[in-house]
């Protein structure tokens, strides 16, 4: 694993863990304010939704980078040799295509349009473009991981679904 990959993993882990902790605090406060104080907080409700978006997208990118994503690996398992390399290369290309076109290009377009129109969230009054930045940012992370997977495939023959060994018992962020 390269220094850059370790750095990307670390940044994603810190952001995901922090966002998830704040998300849990928001939801707990929402429950307390709604049921104990009889005055629901609209700010924490909206903040929890936005944090969930970020946690889901960044968590997906991180999980992909750690090769722990959900994968249907029927073709790589039943093929060998050059055919397996080709299948794995096509899988990486398909993921990179989706991440590049839909997430990065489409996400940047979405961010630009919402910032241009001045759309803001109702409770927090945040520009919605800042919330949508999670889409192209996650797409860039996935593209980076696709490049590392392609390098691994060329160098060692290891595909995007090949694990380093047995699954760890420490948890998803270890």
TrEMBL record:
GO cellular component, one term: plasma membrane
Membrane topology: Multi-pass membrane protein
Domain Tripartite ATP-independent periplasmic transporters DctQ component: 23-155
Keywords: Cell inner membrane, Cell membrane, Membrane, Transmembrane, Transmembrane helix, Transport
GO molecular function annotation: transmembrane transporter activity
Transmembrane segments: 12-32, 47-64, 85-108, 128-151
Biological processes annotated in GO: C4-dicarboxylate transport
Subcellular location: Cell inner membrane
InterPro entries recorded: DctQ, TRAP_DctQ
Pfam families listed in its UniProt record: DctQ
Function: Part of the tripartite ATP-independent periplasmic (TRAP) transport system.
Family indicated by similarity: Belongs to the TRAP transporter small permease family.
Subunit comment: The complex comprises the extracytoplasmic solute receptor protein and the two transmembrane proteins.
Name of the featured protein: TRAP transporter small permease protein
Organism: Roseibium aggregatum
């Amino acid at each position: 694993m390269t220094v850059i990959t370790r750095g990307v993993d670390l940044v994603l882990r810190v952001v995901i863990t922090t966002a998830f902790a704040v998300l849990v605090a928001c939801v707990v406060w929402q429950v307390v304010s709604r049921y104990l104080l009889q005055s629901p907080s609209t700010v924490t409700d909206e903040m929890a939704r936005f944090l969930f978006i970020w946690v889901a997208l960044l968590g997906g990118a991180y999980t992909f980078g750690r090769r722990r994503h959900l994968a249907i690996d029927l073709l790589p398992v039943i093929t060998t040799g050059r055919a397996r390399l080709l299948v794995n290369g096509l899988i990486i290309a398909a993921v990179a295509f989706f991440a590049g076109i839909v997430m990065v290009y489409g996400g940047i377009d979405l961010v630009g349009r919402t910032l241009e129109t001045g759309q803001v969230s109702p409770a927090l009054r945040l520009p919605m473009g800042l919330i949508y930045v999670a889409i192209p940012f996650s797409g860039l992370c996935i593209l980076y991981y696709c490049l590392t997977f392609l390098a691994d495939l060329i160098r060692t023959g290891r595909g995007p679904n090949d694990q380093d060994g047995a699954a760890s018992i420490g948890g998803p962020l270890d």
